[in-house]
Design a protein that fits this description.
Layout (H helix, E strand, L loop, with lengths): L1 H18 L5 H32 L4 H37 L4 H16 L4 H24 L11 H18 L6 H12 L8 H5 L8
Protein name: PXMP4 protein
InterPro entries: Pmp4
Pfam family, one: Tim17
Length: 213
């Protein structure tokens, strides 16, 4: 027992010493990036999939749990692969050119995005749309900071909110098929299911009646 414990402590000391070596920092950062991508993807997707599955999907408990597990795994795997690819390409470019420049980040992320998120499926679609909305806000702020557009005299957010909600509800009412499926489900629950009821049970307690009467 004592010999096994000593061996384990020696192994841990060697691993910690390796982690402190600067020459391996880039490679180790790629590995930890993979780890963080996997963990973060699971943390983000699991609660979202749990709520969306039990709110909007039909099927047995087994089928629902399987769907949650598949969605969580896909999100976790894709983020892990992307971070691994991005940081690896970033390190390779920096090593080849002897320094890090802004274009390296753009190119590495473009390649990673193409390879990992290029498949048009529900998980990738949600992630890309999530990023797109934040990119538009960030680019707008950057354009003001750089002086490409003048600083607004008033907060433009109320106008943005009005246009976003006006557009999405118009699309939902007249071009529903163009919206992403989970958004369709959410808006159907809010704006269409609220038009239908038969008695107090499906007016206040349940969204829809579960019996055939």
């Amino acid at each position: 027992m004592a010999g096994g414990a000593d061996s384990l402590r020696a192994l841990l000391r060697a691993a910690n010493a390796l982690l402190q070596k600067r020459r391996y920092h880039a490679a180790l950062a790629v590995i930890k990036g993979f780890r963080n991508g996997a963990v973060y993807g699971a943390k983000i997707r699991a609660p979202h999939a749990l709520v969306m599955t039990f709110l909007f999907k039909s099927g047995s408990l087994r089928e629902k749990l399987k769907s949650i597990a598949q969605a969580t795994y896909a999100h976790s795997r894709n983020l892990a692969y992307f971070v691994f690819t991005y940081k690896g390409l970033l390190a390779a470019q920096s090593r080849l050119q002897g320094k890090k420049i802004p274009f390296h980040s753009f190119l590495a992320a473009c390649i990673g995005g193409w390879l990992v998120f290029g498949d048009n499926n529900p998980i990738n679609s949600q992630i890309v749309m999530y990023l797109l909305s934040r990119i538009l806000f960030a680019l707008s702020r950057l354009a003001v900071e750089k002086g490409y557009i003048p600083q607004p005299r008033q907060d433009p957010f109320p106008l943005v909110a009005a246009l976003v909600w006006g557009t999405v509800l118009w699309l939902f009412e007249y071009h529903k098929e163009t919206l992403q499926p989970s958004l369709q489900s959410s808006m159907t629950y809010l704006y269409e299911d609220s038009e239908v009821w038969h008695d107090l049970s499906d007016f206040l307690i349940y969204n829809k009646r579960t019996d055939s009467s």
